[in-house]
Amino acid sequence: MKKEDNNPRAGQLQEGEERQISRRRFVSAVGLATAGVITAACSKNSNPLAHTSQSSTRQPAAPPSGKAGESNGNASVKVATNNISTYDYATLRANIESAVDKLGGLGDICKSGDTVGIKLNMTGGSASADKCPRNYGLDATELFWTHPTILRVCLELFKDAGAGRLIVMEAIYDQKSYSGYGYADAVNAVGAEFVNLNKKAPHADFVKVEVPNPLGRWPHYYHNGALHELDCFVSLPKAKRHYGAGVTHSLKNMVGSIPLSIYTNYNDGKEGSEGGSRQSMHERGMPTLVRNFLDICRIRPIHFAINDAIQTADNGEGTWNTGFKPARYDKLIIGKDPVAVDSISTQVIGWDPMAGDFEGCFASDSLPGNFSGTDNYLRIAQEAGMGIYDVSQIEIVDASIDTRVVVHG
Q1: What's the pTM?
Q2: Do 100 and 148 meet the contact criterion of CB atoms below 8 Å apart?
């Protein structure tokens, strides 16, 4: 069984008719709309991507605050959804902008001059992505990779919100997966930057970040230092099934933040062989895997997530999975509490986010291939104070915008 970490899904910037719609700024300072909103940002750095001459141990970014640990039956966090069936630029722009408005703007997570990091999902590399049009009749970005038009809109909205620096991030296998599928076009269009998280650059070495009270296997993780020099962090995954975690959304996307050279076979900071997956993350079973990536999310908190379930896939995270096939749900799921966003995303793709351990989408028989099953990591995340998974505490707000032009005869 091949694991998800990085697989290719390519897609070109689809703009349709680039109709101009208002580019309102979202800098308005708003109070926390809900108790579940993530407000903590990483400490500022006057030169976020300054080169360092030595490896260092970092304290983790400030953890999310204001999280309820137990369900009280009352809605305490908002998640916005959009009914949308196209990747047309104008339609995506209008709908994502509407969702941000319904969530109270971006002013509480992005201040003027802030550095914002945006994590893509490009698991597998171009070798897998290139086969998608032939095998499935769809581009990789319509199956299992972040769609570049969603990236472009996200970059524009944070730029409008006052971000001083925008850094797109992913641990890529090859340059083609970044430059050949529309991501470089989106980055260049707004004057953003790109950092390959598999590499040390722009630093001299990876940084070691301690995990307070680890849930999983390791007391620390090694990261590209740029991940810990951000004021706001965004995750842009596809919503889909996963052969190790049951489902993969914004939280699971963070497995792709750690370098393959260390985690193919764990070398505790020393670079080794780069395999096709971060095999060491899976070595102690799937219940440990899910706790491992929750630890990564705890040291590098997500402040905003856009989960794409417009066009995605079923039966796994990539083309290498048994039974992998296209699926579509015509939905975007957006919010500032990644646990809540992932919980609603699990519902959207047809599964109960509150299922018991080794039940529902976490059960071994829920996928047609070799999935051993796992614990419900959404529950574990809420118990760890990372966010809300309990659907009774999540208010779902419809932010759909119909951009079709109606012609009257």
Answers
A1: 0.84
A2: no
